Amino acid sequence: MCLTCLQCLYRLHQLRRVQRSLDFESAATLVHAFVTSHVDQCNAILAGATKSVTDTLQHVMNAAACVVIDTRKFDHGLTQILHHDLHWLDVADRVTYKLGVIMHRCRHGKALQYLVNCCTPVTDVVGRQRLG
Questions:
Q1: How far apart are CA 116 and CA 62, in angstroms?
Q2: What pTM was estimated for this model as a whole?
Q3: Residue 80: which H helix or E strand, with range?
């Protein structure tokens, strides 16, 4: 298990201890500050990663959802809670979304200059114009 996952699970364990004194908004804010922000940090490198790699991060996200909603690990409907109640994407979908946002910013010149310089529109590549 990666160091980020272990740190996040430790933070979730600490939040579980004080969970009874937190309302929904406070718990969601703390989980975002200590867990989901770390899961999202540099997750673009996970593009194309194997399912076993993303499953460890998904485990962390599932545990975070349990802390926010105050459910247990084996309660039914965790996917429903993640998607419909918290409006969170699965880890693989988060990676795809982040890459899409980065590419959109590059396309419109709103990303960092080194990223914009790395991107070449398909219409500028000979033999690929039909894809644009």
A1: 34
A2: 0.80
A3: helix 78-80
Strands annotated E in 1-132: none
Helices (H) and strands (E) in the chain, counts: 7, 0
Please state, in angstroms and rounded to a whole number, the distance separating the CA atoms of residues 45 and 32.
Answer: 20
User: Rg (Cα) of the chain, in Å, rounded?
Assistant: 18
Distance from chain centroid for Cα 51: 15
Is residue 26 very low, low, confident or very high in pLDDT (cuts 50, 70, 90)? very high
Domains of the chain by residue range: 3-131
Question: Residue 41: pLDDT band by 50, 70, 90 thresholds?
Answer: confident
Give the position of tokens 């600490």: 14
Q: Is 103 helix (H, G, I), strand (E, B) or coil?
A: helix
